[in-house]
């Protein structure tokens, strides 16, 4: 069996993640769980029923993203045959990039399943894996893309580089301003922090960090979308199953 139309996978992620956040934002504002003025993304998925939508669709996105990371790993691994150039990308670099990519997928999964009010430590671990490790992963992808001119047009490399720069800058803005905003927050230490007001302290820093987080998320999704043109020319052939005690291999039909 040959799987085609792999380019739909990045498109699915690009559509799923922003749509999920728009839905959870709308529901959380409608139910009065957050203020409409730039809440943190995680705040829009903290309480039921929006937390159910948040978790379900981000789990799907994490799964599809994990597949995309694996497909990219295979593309880079087989670059000499795919391009006809005979030039190989460093296997160690490719494996390291693959591992970082899978860690960022794990981060998205943790963010989806551990709400910040229930298990804040795990939620923060997931957020850092997703955005910090994810940004490093995409930075390496830009470097690898420069080494694959036969498959990745130069203008696409430039677009990825710009988006990675945006991710890096917004990450550097989001992390410290969030910590400072929480430090300066003087309001009630309960669920009302999801409805931050100017009187609570740290409000301006909160708006800056929240805006940077939304921009970071959009840039991240756009980065994933840039792999759709590459996947357009790829096909995935059925996997080969081998018995450890035998040298022969059999193909399993799905």
From TrEMBL:
In the bilayer, the protein is annotated as: Multi-pass membrane protein
Pfam families reported for this sequence: Frag1
Residue stretches spanning the membrane: 7-30, 53-73, 93-112, 124-144, 156-183, 203-225
* Major localization class: membrane
* CWH43-like N-terminal domain location: 6-233
Compartments where found: Endomembrane system
Any GO CC annotation of this UniProt entry: endomembrane system
Q: Which UniProt keywords apply?
A: Membrane, Transmembrane, Transmembrane helix
Protein family membership: Belongs to the DRAM/TMEM150 family.
Q: What is this protein called?
A: CWH43-like N-terminal domain-containing protein
Task: List the source organism.
Answer: Diploptera punctata
